Amino acid sequence: MLKKTVWLLLAVALNVPAAEIAPQPWHLRAASATSALVGHYHYQPQVLDDTLSAAIFDRYLKLLDPEKFIFTQADIDALAEYRLKLDDALQTPDLQAPFAIFKRYQQRMGERFTYARSLLKAGFTFDSDERFNYGRDKAEWARTDDILNDLWRQRVKNDWLRLKLASKADAEIRTTLDKRYAQSIKRLDRLKSDDAFQMFMNAYAISIEPHTGYLGPRASADFDISMRLSLTGIGATLWEKNDYTVIRELTPGSPASLSGKLHPGDRIVGVAQGVKDPFVDVIGWRLDDTVALIRGEADSVVRLDILPASAGAEGEHREVKLVRKKIDLAQQAAKKTILDVAEGKAKRQIGIITLPTFYEDFSGRHQGDPAARSASRDVARQLEELKKAKVDGVIIDLRRNGGGSLKEAIALSGLFIDTGPVVMERDARGRIFVDGDTVSGTAWDGPLGILIDGESASASEIFAAAMQDYGRGIVIGEQSYGKGTVQSLIDLNRVVPDEKAKLGELRLTIAQFFRINGSTTQLRGVQPDIAFPASSDPSLTGEASNDNALPWTRIRASAYERTGDIGDTLPEVMRRHEQRAANDPAFRKLAESSAELLRLRQQTSISLNEVERRRENERQEKLMAEGGRPDDGLLESERDEKFVRKEADATKDIRLLEAARIIADEAELVARRPPGGA
């Protein structure tokens, strides 16, 4: 969802800018092209006037300071002069107003984290009944600096208490937090004008509708990589830790892995192009800038200056020369496994296909590449392998799958139905189009389950809804996200021709999609046939959490015939599930932990009393039904990577195991049917 595309500045802390943050010439062209396209082609276009300007102003402040920890009411009053000028900023275009707002944000962020550091010397006591109010999105702006400083005192006190409860000594806590806040301030040097521009453009786009968005040139390139699941580079996953770019893992078969000279934990301190160019020192660089240097054309040479994981800061460096190749991001592709399910004397095998996203190599498809990667092709191949293994049923696991290619959702549906409509679309003119599977035959016609959760969205919902409407499979899990809109990605350089500068891309909502039964998944999502304890509240995390989401509606149903016959077995399958859920200690514990998780997500404050907090933590740990890591008070970048990976491997997936039992029950009941019977 779009919320995930506007994260990049929310944790950036600043003081006095090291480099001027100012509008660039290409920003003006991109802003003009974007506003023209949104105004003419959006599914629900809005006039760019003072009313919309006010909405953009409020949205911009919400993106910059979502919990009202940065600005005071005095700041808001000072910035109010721009409230009705942001429409002019986009149409003129003149971006001085939004950049002025961003500069105020920069200044205040630096002041807040500098104040946070100043609190560490004295330390804290934790014997009062004080509570930290962290959920402030609906709160008023702090009236004075003193009030905001007190909120920051509570925030730092909470950071300290988390580390204290993880058995850290005061000296270690002081060092950890001082380094954390100092790192936030140092990110100043890494902030760019492009970041400010992208944040403002997304404030404009989201003010129209939640899934319209602007992708700057680099974000656009990353989106393309995520969709085609390949890039040209060395095959290493990197992260940022203590001013270093650190190797997190190596892709098997990649240049980095095959070299034998790189290992997780190694630090990249310099990057050079070709065999003769000098090294560029990348210590303290933003991660995306370092990554951009390492990526390049296939078969070109890149040299890395490596400080080994085992070496200290003054340790001996080594130079590693690599030839870039096309890297297959297999970890993000569909994966299959087989679960053995035993109920009494009966034993059945259930094939699990986990699909993280509906990916598609757009450029490969346009070029006619028969090997172009796509979700449906990978799943079709895995279904053939599962049939050879003689599995009794199949589950398509779409949990945390936020969508992707609409074409791939339709193609995936075609693997389980013969032919017929899959989804309907209504455009801005009210015209309705039906998209469906036209390829005869199926890849799997046996028992099928579709596992969804609150993060299953868009293309995931199209597929799950189609399987439910056809009666082709049992939808299991939680209510899905509720995104029922269609987006088109527009390259702004095609709108503004003959430009040398990359202008980025616009993700524009152009239509709304509907199930073939006529209803939309918008807001309400897909309701499972068999519901599991919910781990999220749709009103807080789903489409319904967006204050300007499109409403639920329906149109006339498409002409289709139910091809599945789960109706006669579903009541018995549900009865068996409910019996297991009532008697299985692990599933009962899952229900308890899910209820506790929902309670915590609805909570907006937390105790700063040590005794009370220990009691709360103990209660939560007892309800942990699916493994996980106790709260150690650390950020991901401060944590030992090996510990993180070990904990993730130990997680037991209770929901998936129960889903497999459900489909095993379905397989058993189907096997009992007389030949030709219904």
Outline of this structure?
This protein has 678 residues and is α+β, with helices and mostly antiparallel strands. The protein contains 22 helices and 21 strands. The protein is globular, with a radius of gyration of 27 Å.
Q: Give the strand content.
A: 15-25%
Average per-residue pLDDT, rounded, comes to: 86
Net shape: globular
Q: What is the rounded distance between the termini?
A: 41 Å
Radius of gyration, Cα only, in angstroms? 27 Å
Strand tally: 21
Helices, by number, come to 22
Give a short account of the largest sheet: 6 strands, antiparallel
Low-confidence stretches: 1-17, 642-651
User: What is the oligomer described by this structure?
Assistant: single chain
| Secondary-structure-derived class | alpha+beta
Question: How helix-rich are the residues, as a percent range?
Answer: 25-40%
